[in-house]
Amino acid sequence: MPPAASPEVAAAVADAHRREWAFVLAATVRVAGDIDSAEETVQDAYASALSTWDERGIPANPGAWLTVAARRRALDLHRRAATARRALPKLLDTSTDPPGGADLDAEAFPDDRLRLIFTCCHPALALDAQVALTLRLLCGLSTADVARAFLLSEATMAARITRAKKKIAAAHIPYRVPAMSELRDRVDGVLSVVLLVFTTGHDAPSGDGLMRRELADRGLDLARMLRALLPGDADVAGLLALVLLTGARNAARQDAHGELVLMEHQDRSKWDRTAIVEGVGLLREALASKPPGRFALMAAIAAVHDESGSWEETDWPEILGLYELLAAAWPTPVVELNRAIALGFAIGFAEGLAVLDLLGADPRLARYPYLAAARGDFLVRLGRSGAARTAFEEALILAGNDAERRFLQARLAELAG
Q1: For residues 275 and 333, is the Cβ–Cβ distance under 8 A?
Q2: Is the predicted pLDDT of residue 396 greater than 50, yes or no?
Q3: Distance set, CA 17 to CA 21, 43, 87, 147, 210 (Å)
Q4: Distance CA 323, CA 59 (A)
Q5: Residue 212, exposed/middle/buried by CB under 10 A (0-12, 13-18, 19+)?
Q6: In this structure, are residues 63 and 19 in contact, taking their beta carbons and an 8 Å threshold?
């Protein structure tokens, strides 16, 4: 059994997994020929890094090292399996990406992640499968974390991802950015992917920290890439606006000790005004499309918060109206939850609590901690501390990351005092 890697190497490999997984996997798929083989060779490359970097030192560019190692492993598997002709990758569209030759769309689309996104978001796959598969492959999220993002069990999500991979292989879905005539059918799924990448980083579904900053940053990077690819698309503009306007508050979301700070108590001088200005500009463009899409409506809600001078100045009736438009355009239980919260602040906490109680019967929200946390907050504001404790205890059981758990424990301690 090989000796364990040094702490420095283990940390470097873990950091490379967080930062470089998407780049390495996306570049390897073109050589490996199918998604499962690519994942296997990339995993082999990371395992090899643990021993090789211990012996030779950590490379200056870990992502490049891992990509070369994974692609060499994939090519080696092809050579062992059959002749070069018979081993042509099934995912390649050989008319645009001949093996051993130049990638004809490399100049227009230099980031292999775009190819991987559009492959995973092929219309032959159900939308939820598209999003789940891309989160798993492009972002390297565990199946458990993807399941949490979807409010599903891990077993259900594992089966969904497996079926999606098999369908891509069976249908020989090409690994390429689609022609302009095909883009419209793919864009909504791609935008959903990017939004979930960002939101999973913005509110970490597990772990110690409130955020996974590298994942949130990856979501922003992908949104900007899509903006460059489709500069006239209102939904793309709306998505990028939403990511910018939401992420603009990141510096104020935690105190000096890393503890969660609700928007109500945040130091707004820490908000990123440059991002807010850029986001509002994109939002105006997105809202010019009639009717506005769901990304534009969500961005508009974020903009109302970002442009409010204080919590007390927040225009809750406007936010409520925007959530009502969003609920009509995109009816989901989470949207209804947020609409109920806006209702509470715009009209009355008792009215908002009544809607939250109704939503408690929705099985899709049964394990969603923010429903219980919202009920607890409204109950506190209504002076019902006993019921609030019960709600916060439920939220604590369901909370995803340790920062949220510590916040809920603090609220329970306040009520006990």
Answers
A1: no
A2: yes
A3: 5, 10, 28, 20, 19
A4: 49
A5: buried
A6: yes
254: which strand partners? 260
CB atoms within 10 A of CB 160: 22
Rounded to 5°, the CA angle 204-208-212 comes to 35
For the segment 196-250, what is each residue's pLDDT rounded down to a tens digit? 889 988 998 888 889 988 789 888 988 998 898 789 999 999 999 999 999 999 9
Distance CA 281, CA 277 (A): 6
- Which residues share a beta bridge with 97? none
For the cut 70, the answer to whether the pLDDT of residue 354 exceeds it is: yes
Phi and psi for 254 in degrees, rounded to 5?
-135, 150
Helices (H), 230-365: 234-247, 273-287, 294-306, 316-329, 333-346, 349-359
Residue 99, φ and ψ in degrees, nearest 5: -60, 135
Output the CA–CA distances (angstroms, integers) from residue 35 to 38, 83, 198, 328, in the order listed.
5, 20, 23, 37
- pLDDT band of residue 174 (cuts 50, 70, 90) is confident
**At which residue do the structure tokens 């005539």 appear?**
181
pLDDT tens by residue, 156-169 = 999 999 999 999 88
In this structure, how many other beta carbons lie within 10 angstroms of the beta carbon of residue 272?
18
Cβ atoms of 167 and 121 within 8 Å: the answer is no
State the first-to-last Cα distance of the chain, in angstroms, to the nearest integer: 54
Residue 135 in tokens? 């989160």
Tell me the per-residue pLDDT of 257-305, one tens digit each, with 9 for 90 and over. 999 999 999 999 999 999 999 999 999 999 998 899 999 999 999 999 9
Q: How long a stretch of residues is the chain?
A: 417
Tokens of residue 394, six digits:
């439920």
The CA distances from residue 104 to 107, 288, 324, in Å, are 7, 35, 46
Q: What is the mean pLDDT of the chain?
A: 88
151: left (phi over 0), alpha (psi -120 to 50) or beta: left
260 forms bridges with which residues in the sheet?
Answer: 254
